[in-house]
Structures are given as C-alpha cells and as structure tokens.
Amino acid sequence: MKQKSDVQQGTLALMVLKTVDVVGPLHGYGIARRIEQISGDLLSVNQGTLYPVLLRLEQEGAIASEWGPSENNRRARFYRLTRAGQTLLKAEKRDWEQTAAIIARFFDVNAKDLA
Amino acid sequence: VRALRRFFTRVLNFAGMRRGDERLREEMESHLAAQTGENIRAGMGLAEARRHAGLKFGTVQAVREDYRAEEGLPLLEDLLLDIRYALRVLWKSPAFTLVATFTLMVGIGANVVVFGVINAVLLRPLEVSDPDNLYQIRLKPWTSGKALTTSYPAFEDYLQRNTTVTGLAGYNGFRGGRLRWGNTVKRASGYSVTGNYFEFLGVQPQLGRLIQSADDRGSNSAPYMVLSDSLWRTAFNADPSVVGSTVRLGKDPFTVIGVAPARFHGTERFGWPDYWIPVLNDVDAKYLQDRKGRPLTVLGRLKPGVTPERAVEDLSAIAAQLAKEYPTTDTGVPLRLIRPGLQGDARDVIRGFLYGVTGLTLLVLVAACANLASLFAARAADRNRELALRVALGASRWRLVRQLMTEAMVVSMVGGAAGLVTASLLLGALNRWQSPPPGQVAVSADTRVYVAALILTLVSGLLFGMIPARQVWQSSPLQAMKRGAVDPTRRHLLSLQDLLLGAQIAICTLLVSASFVAVRGMVRMLHAPLGFQPQGAMLAEMAVSEEGDVLLEKRKAMLEAVRSIPGVTAAGMVSKVPFTGGLRGIPIFPPGTTEFTLNNSVLEPYGLAISPAYFEAAGTRLLSGRDISWHDTVQTPYVAIVNATLARNMWGAAPAIGQRFIVFGHLREVVGVVEDSKYNEIAESPPPAFYLPFSQYEQANTTFVVRSQRAQNEMAAALERTLSGFAPDALIPVQSWPEAMAGALFPSRAAASGLGVLGLLAAMLAVTGIFGMAAYNVSRRMKELGIRVALGARTKHVMSTAVGRPIVLLGIGSFAGLLVCVLASRLLGQIVYQANTRDPVVVLGAVLTMALLGLAASAIPALRALAVDPSKLMREE
Asked: What is the ipTM of this complex?
C-alpha cells in the first residue's frame, strides 16, 4: 500500500470542496472530471483515490451526499457542500494563501538579500 | 471538533459493523460507466473504452482498502481479529486454558479481596463533610486500646481558649444499655455527643432532625435521641412514625427526634453506634462537672491556613495551663492530632497488618504469574514451528509478538474477570458476616476496587505475556524449522523456565511457612498466660441502682444465691471484667501525702472493685497474703490487694504485705498480692493494678464471674433466672468469658485465618507449577524416554530424566524461600503476635509440606514416564 503525502491529500480535499462549492451538487465522476480539467494531470491516473477523500470529508461533515439519477440514468451519489464545509473552505483557502505567500517569498529571496 | 466527529462516525461504523462496500461498488460502477461512455463518444471501441476507464480509475482494490481504512478503525479491527484467533487457539487446549484461568483467578481474586478490605478500612474517606480536615485530638503518649482524651469541663476549656481550630466536637462512646420501645427490648450501645456533633461533621438527617447546638440548654434540657439507620431498621422496622415517640434507655425516657443517614456511622470504622444522645442528657451526667474522668473523645477541624503542628502547640499549651489551674485532676500531658476512624492508635497496628498481608498477597500473584509465564513459554516453545512458519511466510515479528501478547491478555482478562467476580462475592459475604466483637465495617467493591482489579489484570498479563514474546522475538525461523519440536541443544544449566519455577517455589515456600508462623502464633496466643482462666467461666452483667448498705446487702444476697446454684464451683463479683475496655489509670499516693496533685502521685494503676472469692472464680492465683472478705467494712481498716507488677514497681523486692498507699483519699494497707494479668490486649506487658473490696469502695457496675462444671446454656439460663429474681424487669446479658474475649482475640484469629488461606493458595500454586513442569517435561521427552526404556534404562534413570529437574528445583526453591522467611521475620512480626520464624516446628513443617507437595505433584508425570511403552511410541509419528 503506498502512502500519499499529506500535502497531496490535503490539496485534493481542498479541490473537492472548491469544486462542489462552485458547481453545486455533483457526483464523484463529475468532481473527478472537473478537477482533471482544472489541474491537468493530478487525477488523470488515479481517479479512484477521490472516493476515500470524499468519504473522509463526509465523515467530517464538510460535505453531505445522497443518491440521485446521473446523466446516463444510473444511480449516482451526489455530493454538496454543507454550511460547515463552507466555513472550512474559507479557512482552508486563507491558510493556503498564507502558506503560498510565505513560500513564494522564500523562493524570491536571493543570497544578497540575506547578507 | 472535526476530528472528533470523524472519530465518532468511525467508531459507530465499527460498532455497527456498517460497511460502505455496497455504496462504493455502486459509485465505482457509475463512475466507470460514465467514463466509458465519454470514451466511446471520443471515438473508442467499447472494449478499448472500458480498458481506458479502468486505467484512469486506478487499482480498484487499493481504492477499496483506502476506503475501508477511512471508514472504520483498522487498528481495532486487527485487534479483534487477534482476539478471535487467540480465543480459538485457547479453545483448542481447554486444559491449559482452564489451569491458566484458575491460577490467575486465585491470584487476582486474593488481591482484590485484600485491596477491598484496605479500601474500606484505610482508603475510603469517612462519610462526613470535608473528611480531609478532620482530626482526633489525643494524648501524646502512644497507647493501645481505647484510651480517651479529656473530661467534659476540659473539653469546654479547649473549645473556648483555642485559637487554631474552627470547631471541636466530643463524644463518649462508652454508653450502652437496654433500649425499650413498646414491647421491644434490645441491647444497644451508642454515643452521647456534644450538641454541635452533627453540625460539626456536616451530617443531614434522613428523617426528622438531628441534635443541634441549640439543644444544649444545660442539664435539664429535653432528652433527645437520634437513631442510627440500622437500629431504626432492625428494632423499629423502619417505621417513620417513631420520630416523636418516647423510648427508654435503661430507665430513662428519651424522645426520638430523627434518624441519621444510612451511610453515617460516626467517625469510627469498627463498632458503629446504634443511637446518639446529647451528652447533657447522659444517664450518669456526673462527669459533666467531673475533671477526673476522661470520657470524651474529641474531634477537631483546623482553621484555614493553620498547620497541624501549630494546632498541636496551641492545644498542648492550653493543656499545660489547665494542669496549673487544676493540679489535682489535669495532667497537662501534651496533645497530638491523629486521623480518626481506627480506634485511635490501633490504626498503626491495623495498617501494618494490612500492608503486610498485601505484600504477601501480591507475592501470591507474582507466583501465579511465574506459573503462567512458564506455562506460556512452554507452549510457545511447542508452537515454535508454527511461529517460525509464519515468520518465514512474511509475518512481521512484531505481529507475532502482538498475537502472543493478545493471547496472554485474553487469558489474563478472563482470569481477572473470574477473580473479580469471586472477590466481589467474598467481599459481600465478608460484609454480611457480622462478627460482634469488632463490629461492622462496610467492605464492598467500588470503583477503586474495580480499577485496582483491572490494573492487576493488565500488569500480570504483561508480566507473563512478555516471556513467550521474548522467546519469539529472539527465535530464528531457520533454526526452528530445522530442529523441529524437540530441542536437544537447549540443556543449559539453568533455563528461563527453571528460573521461573524456582522463583515460584521459593515464593510458595515463603507463604507456606508464613502461614505456619501465623498458626503457631495463634496457638501460642490462645495459650498465653492471661492471669485468669476464661475457660469454663460465665459472665453476667448487672446494673444496680441502690446505694450504701442496702446495695451491699443486696450484693451479698445475690452472690449467695448465685453460689447456691447447683454445679457452681466458684462465684465472685467485679466492677469491670478485663478485656471489656474503658479501664483507666487511677493515681495513687505514698502515705503521708497531703496535697493530692497528680505530680505527687507515684503510679497510675488500674483499680477494680471486687467481692470476696472473685480471684477464685476468675482463676487468678493469690501469691501471698489473704483474700478480702465481707468483714472488711468501712468500720475496719481500709485494705487493698495489689498485683505483682504494682508490688514490684512500688516496693521492689521488699514484701508488699503490710505496705500502705493512698487512693481515693483513704490510706489502705496491702493484705494480699495476686499474679499479674492482662487487661486490654493479649500482647500488652502486664500493667500494675489494685483491687478494693466492694464493701469499702462503692461501684455501680457489677459483673458476676461464675465458674461451673455444667453446660454453658444450662448455666446461663440458671444464672439469668436467679438474678432476675433480684431485678424482675432487667435484661441481664449472660455470656461465657471466652465469648466476651472474642474481640480481643479477633486480630490474631483474622491474621491466622488470612495467612492460612494465603498459605493454602500458595500450596496450590506450587502443586500446579511443579505438576505443569514435570508433566510438560515428560510429554515433551516421551520419545526419548521410550528409546531409553527400549535400550534398557533402569527405572531410576527414567525417573531422574522425567522428574529430576523439578525435584531439584523444588529443593533449591524451598531452601531459598525458607531463608527469605527467616530473614523476613520483621515483616511477619507486623502481622502475627510474637512471630518466630526460627521456630523449628515451623521450619520442619514447611519443609515437610513442600516435600509432600512436590511428591504429590510429580507422582502422576513420573508414573506416566514409567508406564511408557517403547514399541507403541516408536510406531507413532
């Protein structure tokens, strides 16, 4: 069993949250497609890894799910963002931006700036 | 919060065995179908589209595993699997499981019982408010028995003058009498308490109200009584209408004003009072003004911020001050603070005893663990192949160790549970068993006991699980597979198993000899010279109300009547029978003393009033001089009889007869010397004492001592009939002297029976240990033995191969155990009266017992080894 890094797992969860926030209730395949469209190749190989993340988010109460008919008339599970999920998304977004900004600053630093 | 919520969902999933498998499968199908559809639209063939969809999705199995890991609690699930496996393995060898469980049940059960008693007697706080700030004020010298603290006037002085305690409450625990209510008559004993007693202790009534400070209105305030819950239930059938009714205590009426809560039994853990009355209403309230007696036990609470040392200084200063103001009565002995609950200083003795027993009981558990460890180690050795196979197939060692530990834990849990159940039953029985002398003490299993049982269980599981785990950890699969079950290379001088068995036998020997010591101590105690002969004597207690000559004549008549009962060989009267408590020192003065301050007194011996022939009835020998007679009256010279210790302390080697001393203001001449006797407890060194004739020293208390050849119950009935002729409506308690002494003998009886049980348990453990080792040895080397027999080995050799090792270990272990026992005589001295571990009877007994146990335990394996049939054995395998 290979272990995914926390960062990657965390990013995937954040992407899921953002996707259902923007698009509204969506089934697993739809979320996977969306993320694929936007992020390129993160999910192009292991779309299946999405499902444990979805379960985890649901257990945490950030998203809720229910059965519904999909486009090809199969039963599919539709996920939507809950109120708790919205709060979480906002907080995560802020954290992420902060982290990104700090990391960016680190990368911008030149040797002479530190001297 | 999120993590918590997630955890709960997972626990719920786990508990409900809810599986999202179905949901995941459907979602995956739907996902794959959608992807396939998309691929077809993108121009792929159906098969191609499916393949690509699958590729893109990733490994279904991996996703499913991840999903499951998210869903439940994988660690717990593994643990459950382990437990299930362990149960299966244990189920397959029921004999082993049974022996292991039983061993552990004994070890843990014994410890839980002992802890339950310690918990009830020492650890559990008293049922009063703020029990941490509750002290008993006591005279500084360490005294055994029920020595009390102060007189009532002195109590009031302490209360008014001190600056360090917020409150002082006093009680007199020596009140007893016949309680009548309607037609019910019951002997009851209770406390007379100061008015603030209940408020001070923070006790609320369960019915009516309790005695309050406001009730203290001098000695003519209304006589109130508060009932204890148990008296209310037994004598009054829990009738709520009893509040407000009048009961008689002796001949005095009291109004019942309330019932104390069921959990409140005063501040002593042994000997619960049946009722409480205000000290001001006490029957002989003479002592309210009397500074001589010291009837009150005083309780106090410290002011915030005051240390006990500071309070002791303060109170002792007041005591010194009082001694100056009242030199004839107050001694000025400094005070100290102790924790109330265990009859004053008896606490130290009781604590020493209980901790000593705890130590020995823990040793039983250690022996049980050693026993189990060697059993488990032997099993692990047998399963070497299986375990090696599993390592070879890729199981991590950690996984195997976990498996073995789980097995050990399962056994310890089952054993622990069995032990706890047994212990709770025993504690319940102990609680219901109401032995009159020490009174009740509530022992029952509470949370603390359960926690202790759990800890013991876990620790012992760890202890004996570690040994096989260590073996597995160190084993090499290659070696194990090559060698097979029999292990001829492992014939070190001393293997781990040998060490375990040796230690176990040593511990068992120690316990067996300790129980021998206890039983010997008990026997010695029963035969210790008391200075009187309780065997064959009856006691009848009788209160008299007359005074002066009338009383004296009545006494003579009663004694005459008792003497003429057929079968009576001797009869006498005494004011207080030894071993019933409440004796106190009486200051005596040399002739010529004019100022009777306590500083001038030479000795404070016990003083008793007696009738003629009391010594004959009690079986106390008169060493020299004469007995008193009815002719010693207030008109004739005052006389006294002293015991040998008093004579020696006062006059050394000089003859005591004819010497004089002053007591109660009269100059008395010694007319006789009697042998020493004991008054409070068997272990005490004989205190000085003197005896005065009833005819020269009036005392209300009277107990008849009657010696006869007749059967006890016959004699008791005759005595009661005769005496009730003199006081028709009195209830005269008659009991045999040994019965009355049971309380004094209780500690050593308890010690002997407790240690006896421990010794028995230890013996059982020793048997199972030796038997297990020998039986295992034989079964493991069956084949080898068969070959030996086939090759013509003699019986002697077969025997020595089969059971030689356990027997040698038995010898070494027993020797070590005996050595420790001899060295541990100080520890045993805490538990047993005059423990003598060098007693040849004890040593011999222990050696014989261990030898017999070893013989019994190794007999069956040895017989099996001898009965080995080589031809049959060789054909097997």
From this structure: 0.82
